Amino acid sequence: MKDRSLPAGIPRIRRARGFRLYDMEGRRYLDLYRDGALLGHRGAGVLTVMKSVLSQGLSTALPTAWEGRLVAAVKKMLPGWGDVRLYASMDRALQAAGHFLHATLALADVHDPALAEQQASPAPAALWRPLLPCPAATRVLLAQLPVTVCSAPVPVCFAPSAAHEAPPSDALPGFVLAAAVRGLAALTHPSGEPPLSDGIAAVERAIDRTRGWKRQGPYVRAVFPEPDYSRVHAEFLRAGVLLHPGYPGPSVLPGECSPGENKLLADLFARSSGG
Questions:
Q1: Which single residue of 48, 91, 203, 253 has CA 20 to 30 Å from 36?
Q2: Is 94 a residue whose pLDDT tops 70?
Q3: Could you tell me the residue ranges of all domains in the chain?
């Protein structure tokens, strides 16, 4: 995966709500990037939980009960692992996984089910994404949570046979951990924010018919040549849709769309296939 820095042309964002962004001029964008906000911005009661924990003064990296609560929630979501540790960034998670595997590990070495349907061979490390099956035959599993704050936390699950060799967790602020716990709870009991809109089937069909895009659940990646991605990204942005800034993605379909937004997405994916 390439550099995740935002490309030129994305305007300053004044506020974010649900699955939409609003720039300084009030223009609305449907957010298919949603880094760390799979369930939507300010969704699933996450903001309320964060405010409550911050009101307790838990804004710095001190030991709290929230670490154990998040570890328990991850183990419940992904059973069968020997131990779960929590790290402050994907880079820190990769360092810990590499230490455990006695290897230098980059994100490109981690099997991502949203970017490849099948593993060519068993990978020592894999990524779990919400709403996709858990990858099998791996010694280390890095979890992409539905809610993170500034890319933290990143849980890493280690194989039971040698879990004691896993590096210790990083110290993380309680409000960050609480947000992640609430996000996993909403994913397990989606009675609040729906993870995927019931009316988005037309968008899925449009994507599945194209040669330039591939879909795994709600995750969509580009399979057309990389040099075309910046042009396609800009085309979506002009139409009011923000894709993942890095080729090949993945972008993620919204959990809620109006009929007009569904039609817009279907048309954009149908006609913007690179080449």
A1: 203
A2: yes
A3: 13-43+193-271, 46-188
Contact status, residue 13 vs residue 23, Cβ threshold 8 Å: yes
Quick count: other Cβ atoms within 10 Å of Cβ 98?
Answer: 18
pLDDT at 116: 83
Question: Does residue 272 register a pLDDT over 90?
Answer: no
Choosing among 3.90.1010.10, 3.40.50.620, 3.90.1150.10, 3.40.50.1220, the CATH entry for 13-43+193-271 is 3.90.1150.10
pLDDT digits (tens, 9 = 90+) for 11-66: 899 999 999 999 999 999 999 999 899 999 988 789 999 999 999 999 999 999 99
pLDDT of residue 120: 58
Q: Are 39 and 183 in contact (CB under 8 A)?
A: yes
Tell which wins on pLDDT, 141 or 197.
141
